[in-house]
Amino acid sequence: MTATIIDGTAIAAALRARVAAEVEALKRERGVTPGLAAVLVGDDPASQVYVRTKAKATREAGMLSVEHRLPADASEAALLGLIGKLNAQGDVHGILVQLPLPAHIDSAKVIEALDPGKDVDGFHPINVGRLASGASAIAPCTPTGCVLLAKSVRADLAGLEAVVIGRSNIVGKPMAQLLLAENCTVTIAHSKTRELPAVVRRADLVVAAAGRPELVRGSWIKPGAIVIDVGIQRVTGPDGKSRLAGDVAFAEAVEVAGAITPVPGGVGPMTVACLLRNTLEAAKARCQTLRV
Ligand code: NAP
Questions:
Q1: CA distance linking residue 37 with residue 68, whole number of Å
Q2: Residue nearest to atom 31 of ligand 1 (CA)
Q3: pLDDT for residue 43
Q4: Any residues with Cβ below 6 Å from ligand 1, and which?
Q5: Quick one: which atom of ligand 1 is closest to the CA of 267?
Q6: Ligand 1 centroid to residue 180 C-alpha, Å
Q7: Residue nearest to atom 5 of ligand 1 (CA)
Q8: Distance from C-alpha of 288 to C-alpha of 253, rounded to nearest angstrom
């Protein structure tokens, strides 16, 4: 069997186009332009690239994009002060604090300082709790994108055995909550899981988010399963050339799975598209509260 390749780039482009159309309608009908503020502390090159990519996508969707850069030695108080200002600012509907923050800043404290209605990353404890309790919530972007990718090949995920590899707060745990909300039977695996290959072999849907290049082998995949690969790491091959690798050994898994996401071009583009969607939804929710 050769799996269907789930084209994350195309699915993300379609989602971004739908968001842009809704942004246009919101501007026209309510006079509101959704705004996303990105906060970057320090000069980590990867974080700079992420913030730049998200800002460009925000502008392309017709939204307002503002960037706030603080030096690496900025105090926690200065950052909390900025968050307070952005919380109060009417033209900012979403706030994105690029992680990781420098070690001297308490990330949890910063996230808790966000207005939960502007927490477009879905990391605030109020959103985490609402998601876990099945209430409407702003859900984290990467796992939301994974659900959309899985549903692009199977509209109804109900009843599927789903195995999520990884239990981080930004991917694994919210992923499990979202799949539970889709009525999957969910197992969360992690570094202490015994017999991981056997656990994965049970799955109709595998979401790999371990950050371990090519951890999941083709022999672990149940024939016909949907495989969503969140991992993305730069590795050096035997030829000395560097390339991006996911958590799944793609060349092996593509022969067994029913559908699989590539790396790159799978989950990554969906994360950005879902951030735009969350910002649009945050702006729409604010309009309703204010009856603009
Ligand atoms: P993380 O915080 O490092 O969490 C990794 C999780 O994987 C942990 O729960 C860990 O278990 C588990 N794990 C590690 N090695 C394992 C193994 N050998 N077997 C089973 N489980 C194992 O990473 P993350 O932030 O969730 O990100 C995971 C990956 O996704 C990374 O490659 C990251 O770059 C990528 N990512 C991509 C996007 C995107 O948009 N494409 C977004 C976010 C993350 P323990 O809890 O037991 O340590």
A1: 7
A2: 211
A3: 93
A4: 142, 165-168, 170-172, 189-193, 196, 209-212, 215, 230-233, 267-268, 271
A5: 41
A6: 20
A7: 210
A8: 46
Q: What is the pLDDT of residues 138-161, one digit of tens each?
A: 999 999 999 999 999 999 999 999
pLDDT band at 289; cut points 50, 70, 90: confident
Nearest atom in ligand 1 to the alpha carbon of residue 171 is 26
Tokens of 38: 């990105």
pLDDT tens digit sequence for 188-236: 999 999 999 999 999 999 999 999 999 999 999 999 999 999 999 999 9
Which ligand 1 atom is the nearest neighbour of the CA of 172?
26
Q: Could you tell which of 191, 212, 234 is best to mutate to test the pocket of ligand 1, judged by most ligand atoms within 8 Å of the CB?
A: 191
